[in-house]
Amino acid sequence: MKIELNGRRALVSGSSQGIGLAIATELARAGAAVVVNGRGEDKTSAAADQVRKEVPDADVTAIAADLASAEGADVLRDRVGELDILVNNLGIFGAKPVLEIDDDEWRRYFEVNVLSAVRLIRMYLPGMMERGFGRVMNIASDSAVVTPLEMVHYGMTKTALLAVTRGYAKAAAGTGVTVNSVMAGPTHTPGVEDFVHELVGDDLPWDEAQRQFMKEHRPYSLIQRLIEPPEIGNMVVYLSSDLASATTGGAVRVDGGYIDSILP
């Protein structure tokens, strides 16, 4: 199956590294014009260069803006214009005992992981509906339904994204626009490498540390390894295409079989 997104314009928030960068790369590989985003100019420009290295003929624009704020979203909208594909990937995570999470931390996680997505959907969904085509994807997590004890505040935000997705999908009913969540499982990124070493120690080689992390902290994974970011990108490319026109309001899993239920 060859998916072509030629003529489509996509934004991936928080795409200067990790899963977001992989998603941007796979969208560009499928022919979409891609906007990569991060907070810093240097890192965002480097991400755009990385996409061009992987996809030499890619149409890539780098826009540095803090999309966790209304001001940052306005900066991006002024430079980007309308979109066909919106991927809300921006997010933060970290381990902390739930009884030690204060009000400010709860608010910070909600504002970055949830309100950034809500703000961009509110900004771009009406235009998509008017034109009769659009794809919105919120990058959620297995943590949305399997709440991790070490980061309840993160899991809460991903659960909220499932509700946000369903609500906006209903708002776009019958317009040709689809809105879905992509539930990523434990994924191999630099940030997750740091997280793994934080939990199992810094003295182990990476392969051994990963195996110990999966065994002790993510034992229900059926693939028994971390997911590679392009595997998430491939699902996003499919959901961005005309082939996925009947898939909306859903929580589509790319979790390595981690969630131990048939339904999300």
Approximately how much helix is present in the residues? 40-55%
The share of residues in extended strands comes to: 5-15%
Distance between the termini: 26 Å
Q: Average the pLDDT over all residues and give the rounded result.
A: 95
Number of helices: 8
Please give the structural blueprint.
Blueprint (H helix, E strand, L loop, with lengths): L8 E4 L5 H12 L3 E6 L2 H14 L5 E5 L5 H11 L4 E4 L14 H29 L2 E8 L10 H20 L5 E8 L5 H11 L5 H12 L11 H12 L10 E4 L10
Parallel strand pairs: 1-2, 1-4, 2-3, 4-5, 5-6, 6-7
Helix pairs in contact: 1-2, 1-8, 4-5, 6-7
In short:
By secondary structure, the protein is of the alpha/beta class.
Account of the protein in words:
The protein is of the alpha/beta class. The protein is built from eight helices and seven strands; from the N terminus they run βαβαβαβαβαβαααβ. The chain has a seven-stranded parallel sheet with strand order 3-2-1-4-5-6-7, sandwiched between helices. The longest helix has 29 residues, at 103-131.
Q: What are the key terms here?
A:
8 helices; single chain; 264 residues; seven-stranded parallel beta sheet; alpha/beta
